[in-house]
């Protein structure tokens, strides 16, 4: 973990540059006094990364208060009301260790990483395996950009995400769980444009309870694939055993693609409850993102793609 102040949701480098440019032009035209007055408004305008219009959620954005107070984070609690407890996670300093089969294993500070990527906003549907769902405007950057920075070797087939383990997380005391929280994707999945690294939501920095300061967001898979508070990202030849698969392999697998027709052994996945309204709506295959991701699985028909 490591130092610096810049927050991922704030600004892409492009916008920072734009703002600086505008300010210096104004300074040249009008003198320093008026620039000082104009600066706060400009800074605010620059604080909102552009929304990517490609991915349309097709339903209302979940009110922020529900997405930030009804959470799954077993390091803190087996219940949903953990947002206050999660505040012990401090977003800075924060580093991510890049390990395994890559050109140069190293540790990167989140703010150094953010300087090398293009931050944007994406509104994604989120479907938990427990059959609740939400729709969230995330800010962050495509995971494919991190792949380019990490430079995995040709032998690497999987990318493995590991959540930070902080002694202040009470759940870590439970011997029942195989800590740390691990998740994985194939490199092909990781390179898909939908796979996203989130550093913010609702135009603010990512709250600790939702995985701040940095989490994975994989909208076509059940929510448990989207590991929170990333401390380590490694590249492997071998498929990892993810956290929930290690706990209950008959119920949770590696692929975990959303499918309304493949029931959980203990409940149906046909419908989902929207946080906030509690309306029940039909679940969609690949959570509605099939046009972008179904081709990833055309050669894997014999695997358990939907659990
Ligand atoms: N990551 C960690 N480290 N620990 C967890 O318990 N829960 C997962 C996922 N990531 C979890 C995690 C599950 S089951 C879901 S549905 C989502 O986080 C919930 O994300 P949210 O709390 O932001 O809604």
Question: Could you name the ranges where pLDDT drops below 50 across 5 or more consecutive residues?
Answer: 1-46
Helix content: 10-25%
The Cα radius of gyration reads 20 Å
Bound molecules: ligand MTE
Can you walk me through this structure?
The chain is 21% helix and 21% strand. Strand 3 and strand 4 (132-142) form a beta hairpin. It is an alpha+beta fold and 307 residues long. Residues 1-46 have low confidence and may be disordered. It has one domain: Sulfite Oxidase, Chain A, domain 2, CATH 3.90.420. It is globular, with a radius of gyration of 20 Å. The two termini are 34 Å apart. The strands form two sheets. Strands 3, 4, 7, 8, 9, 11 and 12 form a seven-stranded mixed sheet that branches. The chain has a five-stranded mixed sheet with strand order 2-1-10-5-6. Helix 1 (13-30) runs antiparallel to helix 2 (32-46). The site of ligand MTE has 15 residues, from loops.
What's this, in brief?
The protein is 21% helix and 21% strand. It has 307 residues and is of the alpha+beta class. Residues 71-75, 128, 163, 181, 210-211, 223-224, 226-228 line the site of ligand MTE.
List the helices and strands and how they pair.
Layout: H1 13-30, H2 32-46, H3 64-67, E1 95-100, E2 106-109, H4 110-115, E3 120-127, E4 132-142, H5 143-150, E5 158-163, E6 182-186, H6 187-191, E7 196-201, E8 204-205, E9 215-217, E10 230-236, H7 243-247, E11 271-274, E12 280-282, H8 290-293
Parallel strand pairs: 1-10, 4-11
Antiparallel strand pairs: 1-2, 3-4, 4-7, 5-6, 5-10, 7-8, 7-9, 11-12
Helix pairs in contact: 1-2
Bound molecules: ligand MTE.
């Amino acid at each position: 973990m490591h130092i610096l102040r810049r927050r991922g949701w704030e600004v892409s480098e492009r916008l920072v540059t734009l703002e600086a440019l505008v300010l210096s032009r104004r300074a040249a035209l009008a003198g320093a006094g008026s620039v000082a007055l104009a600066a706060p408004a400009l800074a605010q305008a620059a604080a909102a990364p552009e929304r990517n219009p490609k991915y349309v959620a097709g339903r209302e954005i979940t009110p922020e208060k529900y997405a930030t107070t009804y959470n799954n984070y077993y390091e803190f609690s087996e219940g949903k009301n953990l947002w206050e407890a999660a505040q012990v996670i401090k977003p800075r300093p924060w580093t991510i260790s890049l390990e395994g089969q890559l050109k140069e294993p190293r540790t990167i500070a989140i703010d150094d990483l953010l300087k090398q990527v293009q931050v944007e906003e994406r509104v994604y549907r989120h479907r938990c395996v427990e059959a609740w769902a939400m729709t969230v405007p995330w800010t962050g950057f495509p995971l494919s950009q991190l792949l380019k920075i990490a430079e995995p070797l040709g032998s690497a087939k999987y990318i493995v995400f590991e959540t930070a383990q902080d002694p202040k997380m009470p759940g870590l005391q439970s011997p029942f769980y195989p800590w740390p929280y691990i998740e994985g994707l194939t490199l092909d999945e990781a390179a898909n444009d939908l796979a996203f690294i989130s550093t913010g939501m609702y135009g603010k920095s990512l709250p600790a309870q939702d995985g701040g300061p940095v989490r994975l967001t994989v909208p076509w898979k059940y929510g448990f694939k989207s590991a929170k508070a990333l401390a380590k990202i490694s590249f492997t030849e071998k498929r990892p055993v993810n956290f929930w698969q290690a706990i209950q392999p008959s119920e949770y697998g590696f692929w975990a693609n959303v499918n309304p027709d493949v029931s959980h052994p203990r409940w149906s996945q046909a419908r989902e409850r929207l946080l906030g309204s509690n309306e029940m709506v039909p679940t969609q295959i690949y959570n509605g993102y099939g046009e972008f991701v179904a081709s990833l699985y055309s050669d894997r028909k014999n695997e358990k793609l939907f659990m």
